[in-house]
Fold each of these.
Amino acid sequence: MRSFTRHKGIAAPMDRANVDTDLIIPKQFLKSIRRTGFGPNLFDELRYLDKGEPGKDNSGRPLNKDFPLNDARYQGASVLLARENFGCGSSREHAPWALDEYGFRAIIAPSFADIFYNNCFKNGVLPIVLNEAIVEGLFVAMYEQEGYSLTVELDSQQVLTPEGEQHGFEIDHFRKHCLLNGFDEISLTLKESDNIKAYEDDRREAAPWLFTQLS
């Protein structure tokens, strides 16, 4: 998993409440359990005018010109501004996979669905909860200024604006530690491989019958 320390990027809007995971990555793309290949179909039903299918070439598909991610001013965006209850719906981990592969490193919203919020941390995407009034102010500034960028500093837990404003955010200490160091659940487990082996050896000696294969 990629670490997250400090990131500066163009902000793009998802200006609607209750965006669910089926809107983030539609159900027809969930057949794969690989973490790659979902970015081109992020917000598929909003980005394109036709229905997307797995393996379909997106290069010739008709674009929805009214959708922000198809607007030239938001190309290369890596910070997503969203409204309340972002990521609601089913618990598919494909949603943060798609956001990450598209290029979003941080998502700022007044609130997130719990499971989606947890899944983001496991995949190197930083979900940031800010007061609704602050988020509204960021939306206004972003719409007024083309190329509006935000800086996220995880160590100091601050979102910095071009105007010099600083907005603090809360984050669990353990999740912060994992993101700063790029630790996912697998890498955390592997860090304890020597201790795990020592425990297994001790257990095998103390209770050998547990390791006897049944014929």
Amino acid sequence: VQLLGSMAYCAPKQLSTCLPTIVPQLSDVLSDPHPKVQSAANEALNEIGRVIRNPEVQGLVPSLLAAIADPNKQTRPCLDVLLETVFINTIDAPSLALIVPVVYRGLRDRLGDTKRRAARIVGNMCTLINDPK
């Protein structure tokens, strides 16, 4: 887990291409019962957040990481922040790697209002995706 965090400094471009695979795995590790593992995963996510190059998403990284770390409490506030954000630049894969888990959680929420917010975010961002893989 710590190796992934250190890759943010050594090979940020290579790491950014792998983020769609890495972030879901790290979010699973955040719920590990061992506190040192949780801490290492949280630290790695913080380091990975520095790889994001999209200017709009860079400002959202703390909120996105909080929502990934504590989805029950932080998903809705993060969705609110995402709705207030005006996206001008194209959304790349590393940015989506942090946004999609939060939006996915919002779409799976029991409250209809949270689902609507997540759906609006998806609609707003679909026009900005450059490389739909």
Amino acid sequence: MRACDSGKEVSRMLELNRTSLQPGLDEIKENSSKIKQAITWHRSPSSLSSSYRSHLGASSSSMSWAESGSDTFDDYGGMASGSHSQTLGRLFAWEKKLYEEVKAGDRTWQAYVKKCSQLRNQDAKGADPRVLDKTRTVVRELYTRIRVALRSAESISEKIQKLRDEELQPQLIELLQGLMRTWKVMLESHEIQKQIMFKVNSFTCPAYGKFSNDHQRHATLKLEAELRNWRASFLSYVAAQKAYVEALDGWLSRFILSDMVYSSRGRSSLPCNKTQLPPLVVLCHEWFVALNKLTERPVSCAMRSFIRSARVLWVKQGEEQQQKRRVDNLAKEIDKRVVAFKRAENKVVESKLLEYKAESDVKQKIESLSERKEMLNTLRKKWESEKAKHHDCMKNTHEVTLNGFKIGLASIFESLTEFSRESLKLYDELLVHNEEAKVPDRIGEKPNGVEGSESHIALDGR
């Protein structure tokens, strides 16, 4: 229970029990993936999907939501540094607004280039001065609109960076602290479970002797289902965490200039001088790299092995029950034949006592009785053989049960202990590195390597 309760703090931070949003957020309530996309959208308009582009014009309420206060969400948890989901939502809204500004600026730029070309052609052909003046006026207006678009994009970029540094960064640090506390409790709990299994392995279990029944077989099947669910939940948790951090790292990497190192497999490392990068960019990239090195395979394999043991146990229990039915059926058949044999034997005795019975008739009945006795003995030998097989089945079931639980559970708790230890070390080192990387704030100085907002609209190279 303590291990289970340890995860509730992180769940509260992520507001997993929040059930309702205010009416103005129906769009995001209906499609929760949009909040996740707040950390995955690239800041370049060319990277957005066509479906997302078509959606941009459908909503005009994104900015009013982005500027709303913390009362947007119901009080169902959250962090001391603010609502993480609300911060992601505001980032999504500002990124959406930035995309709209970029697209509008791009259309203006295309019109500007076209009009400049038209002006050059008119001037080369010696067009009427009034026509030239009219075209120049349009060119100046378009140029002014481009400058306005640049300033607007720069303003939005500054808001996004402010959200990143003042809200997202402290929230992620708080989340890391919560995860570290969770894995500390998990490690302690799994250590205790591991010690218990070590003691269990030293116990001398009583010899087999109880038959498997339908209730036990149903319990084994239920155990297998629970083990499969346990394994699936564990793998889902690890995959979701890695996907979340990968999305964060992918989005934050857009704040870095194009000198990031790339390989054939994708993004591989940050620029060498990390002190010039925003702290959150470095932190999330280290988190991303560390999680990729953390492998869940030993835990997954141990759980899968125990699941197979449970399946083998279920099969063995079925074989034992089937063999038990054979033994019981033979026992019933023997009882019937014993009764029939005694009845026939009594008739032979009666025939001997009656003097008028022919001697040949009595002799024939005695021979028939001998054949029945021989068949009965053969049936008893078969029953003894089947009974021995049943005892072997019971022994096999007993061994599979003991080995499955002793070895299987011990292996699971051992691998979970190691995974918890590595996870705790991971988050502890991330927080230590974050503390070591802290430097005094320098007023008015923007970290090198951060893209200026004008990089969102390329107006000078087309």
